[in-house]
Each structure stands twice: as structure tokens, then as C-alpha cells.
Amino acid sequence: MAVRGERILAAALAAAGRRRFRNRIAGQAARYWSAPTGSAWEANSHWRNGIGDQAWLEVGDDHWKIYETFARALNSPSPNTVMEWGAGGGANAVAFAPHAQRFIAADISQENLDECVRQVRATCTTPVETRRIDLACPEQATVGLAGSCDVFLCLYVIELTTGANAVRAILKIARTVLAPGGTALVQIKYHTSDRRTRGFAGTAYDRNLASTTTFTIEEFWNLAAECGLTPRLITLVPENRLDSRYAYYALTIPAAVQPAPPDERLLDVKYTEFAATFNADVADAERRAARGNYISRREGETTVDD
Ligand SMILES: C[S@@+](CC[C@H](N)C(=O)[O-])C[C@H]1O[C@@H](n2cnc3c(N)ncnc32)[C@H](O)[C@@H]1O
């Protein structure tokens, strides 16, 4: 009933001034994520002490298993560089960094980045770098990273964004930073034909933040393709310890075109033909030279005799 009331009130506000409402929510979201405000913020950012040891470890383990399944199916080599967009308290970072040579954590708040680095350093020796995201220009956080990542993670983030444009920006960032053959593992919260499962912005952003933006399974598939990523695989988690209706997509970009290996049989045939032609030409040239020598010698002899 509370959610229904919130939805009706938010719809009325949005109808009264759609653009103003959207801008207000976007401003609130940027402020909300930029700095800690207490224990609810730490839980929403998935800090270890915010959601508890077990749930925190489960987030990273579950996501690594999903990634491994996708990687096996796609025949992906083990990743060199992994980037996580919206890394929060490092639950995924600690599960992925041990399998990589370099981990790049991007987030809106410095406190999240610091916590993520602390957790990775307590787990493994993989070098970890940070990038601060400014929601007014998220692309700035990727300067110098074009084509350098093998895996791009965006987990428990899309649902918190303030609409399809913000999601487009994230998918285009994934497209930019991924190396040829790289994979983005992106999670969304999906809605069904039941209207109550649709995401919406609350009257204030933090009143419904975890269900602000949802998509149908097909809508997100098409949106990813529109942003230059190739949707390859999908898995659904209708319910987990934290929430419900999650879909995970493996989105790839084409591997660099490699020159095809030579066809050995064709090469043999061509070299045999070439050798035959070459030998015939050499023999011909030698025959012509011998005949020329003979004739000039004969002519020489005639001149002497005369
Ligand atoms: C629920 S936490 C998820 C943390 C981590 N990805 C995980 O799975 O445990 C959400 C994180 O996304 C970040 N975030 C929120 N909106 C974002 C956006 N539009 N782009 C990137 N990060 C965002 C927040 O700062 C927060 O750290």
C-alpha cells in the first residue's frame, strides 16, 4: 500500500512537470551517492559492515560464478584488466580482482572507492586503481582507458540510475573501454507484464532508489545492441537474498579481425605450379642463351675463315 501511494504521488508530480521532476530526481541521486550519510547509505552501497559478511561475500561469489559460466560458453580467455562501474564497498572487486592482473574501480563517492581498495588489498595483491565518476559527465572517468579492459562489470547499479539516458551513457562507456573480444557483465532489475513490477522514481530519490529504473528483458537486450554491444547470453535470478527479478547479460564487442592462417594444401599446389613455371622459364632462358652463344661463335668462325 505504501509503495502504491508513493507511485501515485510520484506519477502526479511527474505529470505536473515532467522535465523538472526528472532533473530534481537526477540532482538528488548525484548528491545521495556522492558522500556517506549513515548506515543505510553503507548498506545501499553494499559495504561489508552495511549488509553483513555473508550477504557481502555471496554478492561477489554469485557474480563470479555467473561470469565464469558466461566466459566458458563464450570461450573467453581469463581477464587481464577488469573495470567495475559503481564498485560500492568492493563485494565484486574482491571476487574478481584475484583472477585479474589489474582492477579498476569506478564510483561516485571517494568513500566507496577507499573502502573498495581497502577490501581488495585485504584479499589479494592485484593492483587496484580508482576512477571518480561525476554524474554530470561520467565519460570523464574513463579518460585514457579506451579499448583497455577485458571485462566491464555493472552490478546492482542500473536499477538505481535515473532513467534510460543514464543507462545508455553506461553502456556506451562499456563499449568504449572494452578491448576487442571483451565482455560486459551487466545486471538489470526487470519488470514483467504486471504493472506493479515497473520501476519508478519516488517523490524523493531515496524513497525508492533500488527500483528507480527497470526494463523488460527484451527492452534491455535491444538497448545494449543500440549502444554498440552484442547481447550474447542471459541468465535470470527471479529472487535472491537481497531482492528480486534480476537479469544478467553477457554483452560483447567483436574480437579484432585476425588474418586467417594459410591453407597448407593450397600453398603446396601453388608452389608446385610456381616451381614448374619457374623451371620452365629458366630452362627456356638457358636454351636461348646457349643458342645465342652458338650462333655468335659460328659467325665469329666464319669471319675468321673468310
Ligand atoms: C548497490 S551499490 C552496488 C555496489 C557493487 N556494484 C555491488 O554489486 O556490490 C550501488 C553503487 O552504484 C553507485 N552508483 C549509483 N548510481 C550510479 C551511476 N549512475 N553510475 C555509476 N555508479 C553509480 C553508487 O555510488 C554505489 O556505490
Automatic annotation (TrEMBL):
InterPro entries named in the record: Methyltransf_25, SAM-dependent_MTases_sf
Methyltransferase domain residues: 82-182
Pfam families per the UniProt record, alphabetical: Methyltransf_25
Name of this protein: Methyltransferase domain-containing protein
The organism of origin for this protein: Mycolicibacterium poriferae
Taxonomic placement: Bacteria, Bacillati, Actinomycetota, Actinomycetes, Mycobacteriales
